[in-house]
Amino acid sequence: MAGTLIVFDFDKTIIDCDSDNWVFDHLGGTKRFDELLLTLPWNTSMDKIMGEFHEQGISIEKVKEILNTAPLSLHIISAIKSAYALGCELRIVSDANLFFIETILKHHGLLDYFSEINTNPSYVDNEGRLRISPCHNFTTSSHGCGLGTCPPNMCKGIVIERIKKSMLKEGKQRIIYLGDGKGDYCPSLKLSERDQMMPRRNYPVWDLICSKQHVLSAEIHGWADPEELERVLLRLINSNSTSVQLISTDATCHAAVPVTTHEPLPKVLNVTN
Ligand SMILES: [Mg+2]
Ligand SMILES: [Zn+2]
């Protein structure tokens, strides 16, 4: 499936938690983070709290140790390795940060399976403090997306538009996009009929797709947990865009099933729960 590009969100998609929450919760910073959020955007609050942890003597090694305990299912590891072995190109588009993502992927031996990680830049400075900056510097200008579901520091839709522009040159025919969050809605709108959107059922992106289904061109294939993610993803990879698709959806979201008219065989609606 050399023509397939798979784009993964990271938090609550590859790992089964939010990496930012995982770190500050385990370092006793939950309450402090909520305070910071009263006056600062999420991304800036994350940079600030990492600075405060550093001042308290919490080392970057300790942060790594915590990141390495973030839950990552064997089904996800298997899905990533199988997709790669089948010739797909794998990328990440995430509102976490590069240090967290690389640390976790390295720990599970997965980093080399990904050709690109689009996220908030971060690095460990000379003093051993993690610095996190926004993917888009919103203090000088807005990223310009008016959808209202993207945070000021990152519009994943803009990233997907850039990827789509370069796809033809690279001989890629379709994108399979997997995500759970509000920020994954904007990129889902940039996908075309030949692409496939895999929203996590009953998570924010799913609710948004269900409520605004008329604007999505891509096929929608829901998943609820890592086991189902693996199953659905491998089925999509092994199918091709002109064959009959089994549209997995939730009984409460019938409206999100795209109407396809080009298929030579009867459409099958597979309600999985
Ligand atoms: Mg997510
Ligand atoms: Zn956007």
UniProtKB/TrEMBL annotation:
GO terms for MF: metal ion binding; phosphatase activity
Keyword Magnesium: yes
Name assigned to this protein: Uncharacterized protein
Stored NCBIfam families: DKMTPPase-SF, HAD-SF-IB
Record's keyword terms, sorted: Hydrolase, Magnesium, Metal-binding
Residues the entry annotates as binding substrate: 20, 95
Cofactors (names): Mg(2+)
Family annotation (InterPro entries): HAD-like_sf, HAD_hydro_PyrdxlP_Pase-like, HAD_sf, Pase_PHOSPHO-typ
Annotated active site: 9 (nucleophile), 11 (proton donor)
UniProt xrefs under Pfam families: Put_Phosphatase
UniProt-annotated binding residues for Mg(2+): 9, 11, 180
Domain of life: Eukaryota
GTP-binding as UniProt keyword: no
